[in-house]
Amino acid sequence: MRRQEVADVMDAESLKRRLPDSAVRDLGEWLVGVGARCAAGAGTHAVDYVPAHWSGIEPWPDRLLDRSHAQPVALSRTRVAEAVREATEHAEWSEALVAPYVWGQGRNGYGPHRLKEILAQPSTADALNRAGIALRSEGAVAAYRALHGAVKGLGPAFFTKFLYFLDLATDAPHTPRALILDQRVARVMRDHASRVGTDIGLTSAPAVATWIWSDGGWTPHRYEVYLRWMTAAADQLASAGIGWPRSSPDLLELAVFNGVWKPAGSWSPDGSGVRHGGRVRRRHG
């Protein structure tokens, strides 16, 4: 069987599998423990940033603190979505990228330099605008396709943050909703695909999983598989009686990023190993 054929079989099988009971239990425990601050949704999840570090970035959203502030402050997902909404209402597409990028970098010192280079490119605003049109007219995967390789220095780990917040800000009509896909989340999906493939007897499963769920450069098809799986898993959690809010695949993305579920060992729909993880505030990939 060729590598692509193996990948297709693994994708199909992965999409059939529900989260095992142990994963549902641990995600429920996280929601009433470390994740309790997000029990109503992921909007309260915040990342620390230092406004003064971004002094060279223009335009600067009004929703972010004045750059005279030199101490770390928290930036919530809700505040980022508000900043994106205000920017897009005035067709300020470069500004719409700033808050998601700042949120994604957190305290990373190299973030301002990279963002300045991205914003300086003449094609950036137009590419973001095209992605916004695609999101509203066709959905998240089409928007991903519009940005894939469109802006030098803006890879999927960051432009999916932009798409996620744009989706929240504009309440795009299509499903599945846009979600963040970064290196940490992709590695969990890689482990899941590897375990699924191994369980059904595909000896090349680990190698193929590493190929399809690499550390970056994911194809639009890979993003679609990710969105479909996350949406189905979140629906399962919302029906599991653990208090998981409905229509919250982004809360599952946050939990996966934080290491609450880590596929380990052989498992079937009835059982699996999980790895607990602590709070992670910085988003990068």
TrEMBL record:
Lineage: superkingdom: Bacteria
Pfam families registered for this protein in UniProt: OGG
InterPro entries (alphabetical): OGG-like_put
Name recorded for this polypeptide: Uncharacterized protein
